[in-house]
Structure formats: structure tokens, C-alpha cells
Amino acid sequence: MKIVYYEEDDILFMELATGEIVRDESLSWNINIGYTADGIGEITILEARKSGIYPLQIERVLTDAA
Questions:
Q1: What are the pLDDT digits (tens) for 17-54?
Q2: Three-state SS across the chain?
Q3: What whole-number distance in Å separates Cα of residue 33 and Cα of residue 31?
Q4: pTM of the predicted model, to two decimals?
Q5: What is the H or E stretch that residue 42 is in?
Q6: Are 12 and 30 in contact (CB under 8 A)?
Q7: If you ran DSSP here, which 8-state letter would residue 3 be given?
């Protein structure tokens, strides 16, 4: 997984999986999802800071594998 924020353009790019993007879908004017053959490959968000999406708050959930 790779997350990049382009400050000059206020664009947040998240790569969830590598692979060829076979389909793009716009959820709204500023959110685009790129799909690979296996599922979501990347998410691009325009005006991420202006719309309150960036900075991200990421939570990790740890489970006890006992």
C-alpha cells in the first residue's frame, strides 16, 4: 500500500494494489476509484485538505491470535 499527498495540487493518492487499472469510476467530482481485475487498485481524491479528508487518521486494530 502506498499513500502520497501532493501538497501543491491538494491531491491525495492511495495505491491499494498494484496491477493494471481496468476500470475507473468517479464517485463524485473529486473522488475517483481505479479498479484492477481483482478489486480496488487506487483511490484519488482532489482537494483532499480543502474537503477535510487530509490529513488522514489511520487506526490499526491488533487481534490476539491466541
A1: 999 999 999 999 999 999 999 999 999 999 999 998 88
A2: CEEEEECCCCEEEEECCCCCCCEEEEEECCEEEEEECCEEEEEEEECCCCCCCCCCCCCCCCCCCC
A3: 7
A4: 0.81
A5: strand 39-46
A6: no
A7: E
* Amino acid of residue 42: E
Q: How far lies 11's CA from each of 25, 42, 62, 64, 66, in Å?
A: 17, 13, 30, 36, 41
Three cell numbers written together for 11: 491531491
**Exposed, middle or buried, 49 (CB in 10 Å: 0-12/13-18/19+)?**
middle
Q: Does residue 51 contact residue 35 with C-beta atoms inside 8 Å?
A: no
CA distance 41 to 34: 6
